[in-house]
Write a structure and sequence with these properties.
This protein has 4 domains: 75 residues, no CATH class; 231 residues, glycosyl hydrolase (family 31) (Immunoglobulin-like), CATH 2.60.40.1760; 350 residues, Alpha-Beta Barrel (TIM Barrel); 212 residues, Immunoglobulin-like (Sandwich), CATH 2.60.40.1180. The chain is α+β, with helices and mostly antiparallel strands. The chain is built from 16 helices and 51 strands. The termini are far apart. The strands form 12 sheets. Strands 3-4-5-6-18-15-14-12 form an 8-stranded antiparallel β-sheet. Strands 28-25-21-20-19-32-31 form a 7-stranded parallel β-sheet. The N terminus is likely disordered.
């Protein structure tokens, strides 16, 4: 009892101190006029516990210190507010509405806030809404020069409605008409809506905390955490993926899974330095330091619909070449053709599938673009042709930075660039000068310039005469610069040193990149910095396709909204850490939302040395990345799958042979993305949007609707916890049905095994695997048929020449088959027969999972006896069918 009394007295003492401290702090540091009690304060958007008084005032917020080391904000939103009010009534038009706004009389910390704004809403289609807010007067502000493609449908019956309020300041809401759900509500931020020249801030509340997307940052969960005021800065940066640090791409796009299972997504078309803060209670504060507020809303209502609508607007990925879905091998640090050959030979020794070999910057002569080192890589052109004879393609790297130190007339890349005036310029008109991989200083091409695009395409085409590449890998295109800004430094002005900078790594806009006042054709670097890789991607694809005459693979490190139209993306310079296996799934899921389906992480990790167990598990997981490449850094040990010996090599081969067996299914998924915007890899909640458990699953993922991957992601584990939503699921290996759907199940997963399950209701086309896709394409096809609760299933097969035709779908040079199983009968029909080679190919095997027992089987009306039934699992395997792929067929199971 005495002990308890002593504690109570101490508690009273602490309360007394707490009551004294705020007053003392307020007197010593000076509280602003708008004093609020601790419990009434709303933290200022853009602030943190490290914010000081001067920074708080720059954020248009009130400063008043209180008890240290508590969550009570010292920098908070003013009661008075500094937002805008609506002038008059909204002005309606057949395709939208216009609202005029005037800045309120509330105080402001900014001298250059827009006095009047215009909100223009465009009802672009039933599922697409645009809301754009710009100053009513003054010089035009920078707007991203992105082509937003027209929607296929009209706006006669929109899924949304808009509401506007003055209460007392202006706010607006986007509402789903069918349910009344408020999807986007700025009421919560009406008192802190700021529209200044170099500081724009808006806060909105969400209908659910099931929010996914926004990047590029390394995120430790696919679903965002709203409990800790996490801030995600976006500004393209060459930095390893670590925490919330801004890295290579800028993707201001997110998806919300609503509580009733509907979904919507939002894209903010802004490329300036910006940040998102995920606030407790389910709201987002958005700050950008330039451009305009330009929102696109995509109303779904299903999760897949949101991605389909988004990619319809910004553009969808082209079909990859078929070989681009094969296994790819790379490293920075081969250092000689002998070492590259040794890695290839080890892969072949263990019969591991291998479709693409890479060259990194160490193949170059003195790190110069469009060259190779004739000493260390002597015979490289001949070796590339040797690889091609085996069916292995070659992809090499290009960096933007161009050496300016070569003797005149010796380096066409630079000399022609000078003639065509292709460089990013300083404010005085001279080229920006930095330092990257070459020893001399470098200039940076301005890919927003038409002359630069012409120069780049020409060089790429000419390069193919030197090295017969099949694809190109564009790196360092944030753009990266090994010095800050310029060799002469950056001038002191409001572009290089704006009044507010989001919490980007390095603290300045010119850290490890160019000065923000550098000049490009599309605008100052302050505005277009994060578009650098985006501008580079399209001419790279054009040049590569014209150089090879075929469909090409372009891989870009830096991306922006719509980059998927031209380039794939790998997740950057990751680490050989077990946590990175999990993070790679999150990044892959995000990039499928961003419209870049051909994505994946460096298998076994790029930085640091991997371990045999890690590489074995990562090889299994990576076999199911859409973009499947093993790559690591210079000075690290080799980590190609043959390097670690039989155990790693054999399990990698097993996983990759499954991948190659399923390539017709994966290729078809890319066709469905290309033609209608489907994700290739997706989270479980895409299929089960009302399943609350599924909304948080990010250690498993699906290929399309048909294949669930549940890899081991942790060291020393030989089992994995896998969640199976309430549906039918079948073990890929033997057809055994999962007996406890709707639950988490512990699956056995020895070191040489990755758990895979086929989802009932799906038909997956397959083809017998080989070491390369070139060889595999000659093999017979098969079908995996997994039946749902109604004993039915559907599937599709898209197939073409694999890339000899750049866009086979447009010209009709492709094959499309539809498969349906219902009422005991499998029916195969040919919807498009434009690929003549299919007449020589055969459907040979079927695997039927989940069928009730039957007595007889008929193929095209004839009795068929060449099949087996697994007594333990019930799987039926039908053999030696030899059905021509260009003809319709039926297979009937007679009860």
């Amino acid at each position: 009892m005495a002990h308890r009394l002593r504690m109570t007295a101490l508690a009273y003492l602490l309360v007394a101190v707490a009551l004294i401290v705020p007053a003392a702090l307020g007197q010593g540091h000076g509280c602003d006029d708008d004093y609020q009690e601790d419990g009434d304060r709303t933290g200022c958007p853009g602030s943190s516990h490290d914010t000081v008084e001067e920074s708080c005032h720059l954020l248009n917020c009130t400063w008043c210190p209180t008890v240290p080391d508590t969550p009570i904000p010292w920098c908070y939103v003013s009661k008075v507010g500094v937002g805008y009010v609506m002038v008059g009534e909204p002005i309606n038009s057949p395709g939208g509405v216009r609202v005029e706004l005037q800045r309120s009389a509330g105080r402001t910390r900014w001298d250059n806030e827009a006095e009047n704004l215009v909100l223009e809403a465009e009802f672009q289609s039933n599922g697409r809404l645009r809301v754009k807010i710009t100053p009513a007067t003054g010089p035009p502000r920078f707007e991203v020069p992105i082509e937003i493609l027209p929607p296929a449908e009209g706006n006669q019956d929109p899924l949304y409605e808009l509401q506007f309020e003055n209460s007392p300041l202006f706010s607006f809401k986007v509402i789903r008409k069918a349910t009344g759900t408020v999807l986007f509500d700025t009421t919560v931020g009406q008192k802190n809506f700021v529209y200044a020249d170099q500081y724009l801030s808006l806060t909105w509340s969400l209908p659910s905390e099931n929010v996914y997307g926004i990047g590029e940052n390394e995120q430790t969960s696919f679903k965002h955490d709203f409990s800790a005021n996490k801030r995600y800065p976006l500004w393209a940066r060459d930095h390893t993926p670590e925490g919330t640090v801004n890295i290579y791409g800028v993707q201001p796009y997110y998806t919300v899974l609503e509580t009733d299972g509907n979904a919507h997504s939002v894209a903010l078309v802004n490329a300036n330095a910006q940040e998102f803060t995920m606030r407790p209670g389910g709201s987002i504060n958005y700050i950008t330091i330039g451009g305009v507020l330009d929102f696109y809303f995509f109303l779904g209502p299903s999760p897949e619909n949101t991605v389909q609508q988004y990619t319809e607007a910004v553009g969808r990925a082209p079909m990859p070449p078929y070989w681009g879905l094969g296994f790819q091998l790379c490293r920075y640090g081969y250092d000689s053709i002998a070492n590259m050959r040794a890695a290839v030979d080890r892969t072949e020794q263990y019969d591991i599938p291998h479709d693409v070999q890479y060259g990194d910057i160490d193949i170059m002569l003195r790190r110069l673009d469009f060259t190779y080192d004739p000493v260390r890589f002597n015979g490289l052109p001949e070796y590339i042709r040797e690889l091609k004879a085996k069916g292995i393609k070659f992809v090499t790297i290009l960096d933007p930075a161009i050496s300016i130190g070569e003797p005149p007339g010796s380096y066409e890349t630079f000399d022609l660039g000078q003639t065509m005036d292709v460089w990013v310029k300083r404010a005085d008109g001279t080229p920006t000068q930095g330092k990257v991989w070459p020893d001399p200083p470098v200039y940076f091409p301005d890919y927003s310039s038409e002359s630069t695009k012409e120069w780049w395409i020409y060089l790429i085409k000419e390069f193919h005469n030197l090295l017969e590449y099949d694809g190109l890998w564009i790196d360092m295109n944030e753009p990266a610069n090994f010095i800050d800004g310029d060799v002469n430094g950056c001038p002191g002005n409001s572009l290089n040193s704006p009044p507010y900078v989001p919490p980007i790594f390095g603290g300045t806009l010119w850290s490890f990149t160019l000065c923000a006042d550098s000049v490009q054709a599309a605008g100052v670097h302050y505005d277009v910095h994060s578009l650098y890789g985006w501008f580079q991607s399209e001419p790279t694809l054009i040049g590569t396709q014209e150089g090879t005459g075929k469909r090409a693979l372009v891989l870009s490190r830096s991306t922006f909204l719509g980059s998927g139209r031209w380039a794939a993306h790998w997740l950057g310079d990751n680490f050989s850490r077990w946590s990175n296996l999990h993070f790679s799934i999150i990044g892959m899921l995000q990039y499928n939302h961003f419209g870049v389906p051909l994505s994946g992480s460096d298998i076994c990790g790029f930085n640091d040395n991997t371990t045999p167990e890690m590489c074995q598990r990562w090889g299994q997981l990576g076999a199911f990345y859409p973009f499947s490449r093993n790559h690591n850094a210079i000075f690290n040990q080799d980590q190609d799958p043959g390097y670690f010996g039989p155990a790693v090599a054999n399990s990698t081969r097993t996983a990759l042979r499954i991948r190659y067996n399923l390539l017709p299914y994966l290729y078809t998924l890319f066709h469905l993305h290309h033609t209608r915007g489907d994700t290739v890899v997706r989270a479980l909640w895409h299929l089960f949007p009302t399943d609350q458990v599924a909304s948080g699953i990010d250690k498993q993922f699906l290929w399309g609707t048909g294949l669930l991957i549940s890899a081991v992601l942790d060291e020393g584990q030989t089992s994995v916890q896998a969640y199976f939503p309430d549906s039918r699921w079948f073990n890929y290996y033997d057809g055994m049905e999962v007996q406890t759907p709707g639950q988490t199940v512990q699956l056995q997963a020895p070191l040489d095994y990755i758990p895979l399950h086929v989802h009932g209701g799906n038909i997956l086309p397959t083809q017998d695997p080989e070491r390369t896709t070139l060889l595999a394409r000659n093999n017979p096809f098969g079908l995996i048929i997994a039946l749902d609760e109604n004993q039915s299933a559907q599937g599709t097969l898209f197939y073409d020449d694999g890339g000899d035709t750049i866009d086979s779908h447009t010209v009709g040079n492709y094959y499309l088959a539809e498969y349906e199983f219902s009422n005991g009968t499998l029916t195969g029909t040919v919807a498009q027969n434009g690929y003549a080679e299919m007449a020589t190919k055969r459907l040979d095997t079927l695997r039927l999972m989940g069928h009730t027992p039957f007595r007889l089987m008929y193929v095209n009306g004839n009795p068929w006896f060449d099949y087996t039934v697994n007594g333990a699992t019930g799987e039926v395997t039908v053999l030696h069918l030899q059905l021509p792929m260009n003809l319709a067929f039926t297979v009937r199971c007679e009860p």
